[in-house]
Amino acid sequence: MNSALYERYQQAKTENKAKYARDLAAYLNVSEAQLLHSRVGHDKAVRLNVDAPTLLTELATVGKVKAITRNEYVVHEQVGRYDNATFSPHGGLILNPRALDLRMFFSHWDAIFALTEDSKHGERHSIQFFDKQGDALHKVYTTDETDMAAWQALIEKYATQDNPELIHEAAAPFTSQPVSEELKQQLEQEWRNMTDVHQFFVLLKKNNLSRQQVFAAVSDDLAWKVPNDSFNQLINTAFKDQNEIMIFVGNRGCVANFHW
């Protein structure tokens, strides 16, 4: 599959020069992980044989990098350092408020690759983490302030000649319970008892509900629907008034927090 997909990728690049890897993968009807997997042995792409917590911890040695976390709707970019890391078997924190601030859920993490590719600004170096569905969870790019010797040493330490086929899993469907009147009252009370925004995630997990279900269940003074263009207005107003805000951008395995 690798050679055939790589040839299709080369043709697709010619036909879609402005496309990102995510878009090219969709165009070719493969996952982004499968596309990068096909480039190993052809381009400057290598598979890394290391678990995510270990690699993320050692990224602290390379200095400033650009970290990217995205989903279907939004891309979060943050230049910073992988300092102040804390990990457990199931999750992790990179806790640098107002800088690189991440939450990770490792049950979703799978393949890791390193890539060097040409760009209009010269060579671009990255480490890319993918989930079990082949979607990019997190990407790390070098900057002008990255210690390239430490970066290359890290890649060489974990690079492997083995590049086994990726085995993707279907994403588990989200199933939730109906929201009864009794549950609405319970949610209302639990929401009003919250003392920290992070407790909202616990509320969702505890009651097995989506955000939208909870938003619809509580009173209008807690949550209400706004026009789709309100986000731009919110950002511009916050900037104009110099209000502090936090923005969370997440996917299945990683949440990035922007604190302005």
Automatic annotation (TrEMBL):
Gene designation per UniProt: hemS_2
Protein name: Hemin transport protein hemS
Residue ranges of every copy of the Haemin-degrading HemS/ChuX domain listed in the record: 29-158, 208-256
Pfam families assigned to the protein according to its UniProt record, in alphabetical order: HemS
Gene Ontology biological-process annotations: iron ion transport
CDD domains: HemS-like_N (cd16830)
